[in-house]
Amino acid sequence: MILTSLLALFASTALAQQAVQQTTTTYFGTWSSGSGNVLTGPGFANPANESFNYPPTTGISYSFTQDGFYETARYRFNSNGSMPNCISANLVWHHGTYQQQPNGSIVLTPFGDGFQQVQDPCAPVSNFVQNYNVTELLSTWAVTQDPILGSRLFLYQFDGTPWPPMLFMSATPNMLPTRSLRNISAPVVIAKRSTNDGDSVRLWGISGLVSSAVAAGLASLLL
Ligand SMILES: *[C@@H]1O[C@H](CO)[C@@H](O)[C@H](O)[C@H]1NC(C)=O
Ligand SMILES: *[C@@H]1O[C@H](CO)[C@@H](O)[C@H](O)[C@H]1NC(C)=O
Ligand SMILES: *[C@@H]1O[C@H](CO)[C@@H](O)[C@H](O)[C@H]1NC(C)=O
Ligand SMILES: *[C@@H]1O[C@H](CO)[C@@H](O)[C@H](O)[C@H]1NC(C)=O
Ligand SMILES: *[C@@H]1O[C@H](CO)[C@@H](O)[C@H](O)[C@H]1NC(C)=O
């Protein structure tokens, strides 16, 4: 009895070590920062109804296929220095194709069906969902090997700002289907507000949704 549970323990420890020490030298596969709770693929974004499943902790995730598709999932908090009590939450999901450039940078071109949710308790509209169709330049990337953590991917934004380092989660990319997954000419569904009135989800067009003030705030948030 004790022996079998010891053996089981040994086996699971060996398995765990094998799992964390997965290594690679390229960016192909699925990567996730921090505790690994934010992951591309099923479980983060639901494009059909423009909603997110909130992971237990913040983080970012990127996946790359060998044949030129990518997906990214990000859940972050942003604070505003001039209004320290106003911490906004931002969830972003987009996917599309990527091109590795001769200078080593990677250009991510979205399909156009990406979307984001912003929750800012201090903004005039405190919780909304909108389209997110921003071409992303990853100016450089690097994969390093850590004896305990395995491979880590470092991605740098267009201006050289690093994204948080990500651990290698799987060689087979964990991704939603690599094609447009929602009707982008339909109005975006606004997230249910955090009131208790039991209202169902309301439909708002983008133009009615984003006042110029909100748009300005959002622009600084997303840089
Ligand atoms: C959106 O779709 C997902 C997956 O079908 C479902 O789990 C979730 O409850 C839906 N969310 C809303 C707000 O309708
Ligand atoms: C912080 O909030 C103020 C007031 O809403 C706004 O004017 C300013 O642009 C914000 N700064 C950042 C970096 O978001
Ligand atoms: C690398 O190439 C991309 C795409 O052509 C370009 O946008 C970027 O500015 C270049 N980066 C550097 C450091 O030259
Ligand atoms: C997304 O952005 C690209 C590049 O700017 C553009 O060609 C495309 O039409 C956009 N798609 C949508 C649905 O707005
Ligand atoms: C997409 O949405 C538009 C506007 O609501 C609608 O006219 C069109 O039929 C929809 N297309 C599909 C394929 O559902």
From TrEMBL:
<protein>
    <recommendedName>
        <fullName>Protein ROT1</fullName>
    </recommendedName>
</protein>
<dbReference type="GO" id="GO:0051082">
    <property type="term" value="F:unfolded protein binding"/>
</dbReference>
<feature type="signal peptide">
    <location>
        <begin position="1"/>
        <end position="16"/>
    </location>
</feature>
<keyword id="KW-0256">Endoplasmic reticulum</keyword>
<dbReference type="Pfam" id="PF10681">
    <property type="entry name" value="Rot1"/>
</dbReference>
<dbReference type="GO" id="GO:0005789">
    <property type="term" value="C:endoplasmic reticulum membrane"/>
</dbReference>
<comment type="similarity">
    <text>Belongs to the ROT1 family.</text>
</comment>
<dbReference type="InterPro" id="IPR019623">
    <property type="entry name" value="Rot1"/>
</dbReference>
<dbReference type="GO" id="GO:0006458">
    <property type="term" value="P:'de novo' protein folding"/>
</dbReference>
<keyword id="KW-1133">Transmembrane helix</keyword>
<keyword id="KW-0812">Transmembrane</keyword>
<keyword id="KW-0472">Membrane</keyword>
<keyword id="KW-0732">Signal</keyword>
